[in-house]
Amino acid sequence: MATHSQKDAYLFKKVISIGTVCELTGLSERQIRYYEKRKLIFPERSDRGNRKYSFSDVETLMDIANKMEDGMQTSELRKEMQKNQNKRYDSKFRERMIRGQLNAYFNKRD
Q1: Under 8 Å between Cβ of 21 and 58
Q2: In the structure, what pLDDT confidence band is assigned to residue 16 with cuts at 50, 70 and 90?
């Protein structure tokens, strides 16, 4: 995952158990595991093999559940998520390229 500021780093720490995620989202363990199987969510595993989620994962699960309720298929969701990830990557890549060009320009002038 991309680098996050110190301020929001807690959002991405995978520390929440599946039971707590169920309580927070209203989803069943079976639904959450299904979304994982369909490669829509990617929990980490503890040493004992228990799934661990982040607050960001909880938000993603809520978004998935809402879109599924609206009739979206998991394959459509996966494509949408991949497209959004590619946009974020492209944006970061462009930003790095521009910074590199600016650095080269100003270093050349010195």
Answers
A1: yes
A2: very high
**Alpha carbon distance 92, 87 (integer Å):** 9
Token pair for 60: 């993603």
pLDDT band, residue 96 (cuts 50/70/90): confident
Output the pLDDT for position 100. Answer: 78
Q: How many CA atoms lie within 13 Å of 47's alpha carbon, on the beta-carbon side? A: 0
What is the SS3 assignment for 36?
helix
Residue 98 lies in a domain: yes
Domain that holds residue 18: 6-109
H or E, element range at 59: helix 55-69
2 pLDDT band, cuts 50/70/90, is very low
Closest CA to 87 of 76, 98, 77, 95: 95
Chain center to CA of 98: 26
Look up the CATH number of the domain holding residue 71: 1.10.1660.10
Tell whether 1 is covered by a domain: no
